[in-house]
Amino acid sequence: MRDLVKVLDRIIEVAPELEPRFRSLKTSIMYTAPEAMYVRWNQAAHILQEYANPHPKAREIAEIFSGEERYEA
Asked: Which of 1, 53, 66, 69 is most solvent-facing, going by the fewest CB within 10 Å?
């Protein structure tokens, strides 16, 4: 299972202006049972749909969130 906090941190590296949108979600993740993490992933997806879709780096953000980010060696 992927670590949602690490995914959000990576998205924030690419788009720092999205950090305030994820602040409360990142706090909530710490108190979420593993079997309920899908709720937090859905919340993150809704935030991204609303705020990252029109973002200039939307494609890169989508790759990070979907796990398809291409790392250059």
From this structure: 1
Dihedral over alpha carbons 22, 24, 25, 27 (to 10 degrees): 120
Residue 15 falls inside a structural domain:
yes
Q: How many CA atoms lie within 13 A of 9 on its CB side?
A: 7
In a domain, 72, yes or no: no
| In a domain? residue 73 | no
* Domain assignment of residue 62, given as a range: 4-66
d(Cα 43, Cα 3) in Å, to the nearest integer? Answer: 15
As a whole number of angstroms, the distance between CA 68 and CA 70 comes to 6
The two tokens of residue 46 are 């809704």
